[in-house]
Amino acid sequence: MSLFNRTCGVKSAVTMALISAAVGLSACSQSASPDIKAREDIMKSWGDAMGVMGDMVKAPDTFDAAVFKEQAAFLADSADSPWTHFQDESAKGGAMDSVWSDADGFSSEADKFKQATDALNQAAQGASSVEDVQPAFAEVGASCKSCHTEYRAES
Ligand code: HEC
C-alpha cells in the first residue's frame, strides 16, 4: 500500500484496491489505457522491424532482399497507424506533454516519418544489396530518433 501511495499518489487504499481489481493491473501505470497499449504495441513492432533490417545493414553478407522488402513494406504500411492513439491527452504513457502542447511539431515528425518509410519501401523493392537500401534505412532511423528526442519521455 505504501508503495502504491508513493508511486501514484492514490489517496485511498480502498479506491486503489477497487481499481486494481477492475482492470486487473496496477492502476497507476496507466497501462490500462487501450490507446497507450495500442501505440506502444505498434512502436514495438517497428522496433522489431528495424532490428531485422539493422542486423542486415550491420552484416551486409546476410542481406536477404525478400525479408528486407517485407519489413520495409510493413513500416510504410503502418506508418500512420499510431497517431490516432494520441488523441487523449490524459493518456500520457511514455509520451511527453509536448505531443499535445506542440501538436503541429508532432504531426510534422509523423509526416516526415511517413515519407522516410515510403522512400525506404521504394528503395527496397529493387534492392539487391545493402548498399541499395542503406541511405534510406538510415533516414528512417534518424526519423524515429528525432521524434523520440522531442516527444518520447522514456527511452
Ligand atoms: C512522430 C513521432 C514518433 C516516431 C516517428 C516514432 N516514434 Fe516511437 N514513440 C513515440 C512516442 C511519443 C512514444 C511513447 C509512446 C507511449 O509510451 O505512450 C514512442 C515509443 C516507442 C517505443 C516504446 C514502446 C513501449 O513499449 O513503451 C519504441 C520501441 C519505439 N517508439 C520505437 C520506434 C521506432 C523503431 C520508430 C521508427 C521506425 C519510431 N518509434 C518512430 C513517437 C514516435
Concise structural overview:
This protein has 155 residues and is mostly helical. It has helices at 2-8, 13-23, 34-58, 65-78, 98-101, 103-125, 130-151. Mean pLDDT is 86; it is low at 1-27.
Topology:
Blueprint: H1 2-8, H2 13-23, H3 34-58, H4 65-78, H5 98-101, H6 103-125, H7 130-151
Helix pairs in contact: 3-4, 3-7, 4-6, 6-7
Heme C binds next to α3, α6 and α7.
Task: Tell me about this structure.
It comes from Psychrobacter aestuarii. Keywords: Electron transport, Heme, Iron, Metal-binding, Signal, Transport. This protein has helices at residues 2-8, 13-23, 34-58, 65-78, 98-101, 103-125, 130-151. It is mostly helical. The protein has 2 domains: 1-32, no CATH class; 33-151, Cytochrome c/b562 (Four Helix Bundle (Hemerythrin (Met), subunit A)), CATH 1.20.120. It starts with a helix and ends with a helix. Heme C is lined by residues 36, 39-40, 43-44, 46-47, 50, 75, 93-95, 99, 106, 109-110, 113, 140, 143-144, 147-148, 151-152.
Could you give the order of the helices and strands?
HHHHHHH
- Bound molecule types: heme C
Work out the count of structural domains.
Answer: 2
The tally of helices reads 7
| SSE-based structural type | mainly alpha
Pfam families: Cytochrom_C_2
Organism: Psychrobacter aestuarii
Keywords: Electron transport, Heme, Iron, Metal-binding, Signal, Transport
InterPro entries: Cyt_c/b562, Cyt_c_II, Cyt_c_prime
What descriptors fit this protein?
single chain, 155 residues, mainly alpha, Four Helix Bundle (Hemerythrin (Met), subunit A), 2 domains, 68% helix, disordered N terminus, binds heme C, heme, Cytochrome c, metal-binding
